Structures are given as structure tokens and as C-alpha cells.
Amino acid sequence: MALYQRAPYQTADRQKMNANESDQEEDALVGDYREQVRYDDGMEDLDRTDSYGGGGSQYQDMQAQLVNAAQPLEYQATLEVKFQSYDNYCNLFHYILNSDGPVDLEPPSSNWAWDVIDEFIYQFESFCRYRHRVARNPNAASNSTGDDDFALLRDNPNTWGCYSVLNVLYSLIQRSEITAQLAAVRDNGDANAVAGEYGTRPLYRNLGYFSIIGLLRVHCLLGDFSLALKTLDDVELNKKAMFARVMAAHFTTYYYVGFCYMMMRRYADAIRMFSHILVYVSRTKNFQKNTQQGQFDSITKKNDQ
Fold it and tell me: Tens of pLDDT along 231-261?
């Protein structure tokens, strides 16, 4: 990914040409998103049909887990539910990563991989905030059943731990060989030649790719902004990138890249990132109702910020 600072001085003609190129790229992105909205509307009906010719209850159970993994957790979920959600994610990722060979599962939707990674990191972030709040005020940490949340958190220190989350993301990236694929595409090579047995499967390729965006977000949360940007070395910030096909992923990428630049005092680059995504959101606001409500709320909140 080209993360360069802009030159300190440009002529008026050069600035005008860059502005025109930026407008053309934003128009193209808006057009791509409009096509995506129409495409997803058609696929939604197809996803409801039972087009699989058998496979047993185990296959159906795994498909149900795939669907549930992308569903937002209730805001008022109890601590026990959050523990159970963590266990479900661990079981799902363990099955995907540690089975004998690539698993033969069909993603429930075209944006499923992003939805899973996004929700996985969101639950990690919200759990860490709650754990910190309980640690500061343990006497008030009791749930509706009278159990002591402080004791539960103390007895389960590894639940939703940052090392566990980072391990999942790095494992998905390594298993899919996505960095090698992106490097091959950047050098005009054949991505399938380096994808390996797993990377040729859409399930692994998409999970690996969006795990890179997830790492950007997690390292920002941990305060390592240089490493956050480093994770995007092989990702191009342009309309051809895979994240540009999913509006929430597009917004998240530019938001956290801009945030990293701002924290590193690269203010010109930060303004460039934020300006791009604000213009993009304003041009696509009429289509945002097609996104999931949780993603829409997140986009709206960050847009206001």
C-alpha cells in the first residue's frame, strides 16, 4: 500500500489535476457501490433458497454457525452471553483453521467475511471496555442474577484477550497466504500460483483479506499506530481494492488509516484520508439504508466524529 506523504508544494495546475483525479475516483467508487447494492438485492432472495443437495445435520449446523457469527450481539447482553459468544468464535475459527485440509463451507452472503471479522473485533473492543470499567469499580459489578461480574472476569482472564484475537487474525492471514497473493497482484503476477491449497478458496481468501483490515483496527486500539499502518503494506488504497466493494470496510479502512496518520502527526495525510471518506459517505448516504443497522450506526457515528 502506498502510504506516502504529499509533497510540501505543488503548482496550481498540479493541484487542479490531482483534484480532478480524486473526483473521478470517488465518482467511480460511488458507481461501484450502487451496482453492489443492486447486486446484493438480487442475491438476498437466492440465499434464502435451499439449494444444497444434502450434507447432513453437521453441515447445516456449521452453516448456522456461519450465519450467527456475523450477527451483532445484543447491546444489553449479559457477561455469560459474551463468554458464550467468545467460545462460539473460538470453535468456529478452530474448525476453519485446524481441520484436515480446507473446509467445504459456503459463505452465507458475499459480505459475510467482513461482517464476521467486524463483529468479532467489535465484541472484543466492547468486552475490553466493560472489563476496564469493572476493574475500576468492582463493588458495582453485579448482574441481574446477582452474580459478581468482577469475580467472573477475575476467574476468566484469557476470555476475549488481545493475544487470542491477534492470534486468530494472524492465523487467518497466514493460512490464506493473502499477503503473498496481494504482492503477486501488485507485481502483475498470478495470485493463484502462490495462494496454496487454502488461499484459492473464497472462504479463506476473504477472511484473510479482511483480517488485514481487522489488524489495522486492533493495533490502533492497542496504540501501535506504526504497526497498524505496516499491516497494510500489501493493500492498495484505491477503487480496485477488495475493501472498496463493502462500504463498511471501505469506511473503516480510511478512518483508521487517517487516525493513525493523525496520531503520528502526519496531519496532511490524515486530512486527505478523512476528506476522501467524508465525501464518499455524503455521496452514498441514500444507499446506506441497505447496510446492516449496526454497520450503519457505526458509519454515522464515525462520520459525525
Answer: 999 999 888 889 988 988 999 999 999 999 9
- CB contact burial 86-121 (16+ within 10 A = b; e otherwise): beebeebbeebbeeeebeebebbebbbbbbbbbbbb
Q: How far apart (Å, rounded) are the C-alpha atoms in residues 305 and 284?
A: 18
| pLDDT tier, 40 (very low <50, low <70, confident <90, very high otherwise) | very low
- What's the Cα-to-Cα distance from 1 to each of 170, 175, 220, 232, 259, rounded to whole Å? 18, 21, 17, 6, 16
Q: How far out from the chain centre does Cα 294 lie? A: 13
Q: Which three cell numbers stand for residue 175?
A: 493460512
Residue whose C-alpha is closest to residue 86's, from 25, 23, 36, 131: 131
Q: What is the mean pLDDT of residues 18-46?
A: 46
Question: What residues have CB less than 8 Å from 228, skipping those under 6 apart?
Answer: 215, 216, 217, 219, 220, 256, 260
- What is the identity of the amino acid at 2? A
**Predicted confidence (pLDDT) per residue in 287-298, tens digit:** 555 555 555 455
Closest CA to 113 of 145, 159, 70: 70
pLDDT at 74: 83
Whole-angstrom distance, CA of residue 130 vs CA of residue 82: 11
Alpha helices in the chain (DSSP H): 12-47, 56-69, 79-98, 112-136, 149-155, 162-176, 178-186, 192-199, 202-222, 225-230, 247-263, 267-284, 293-304
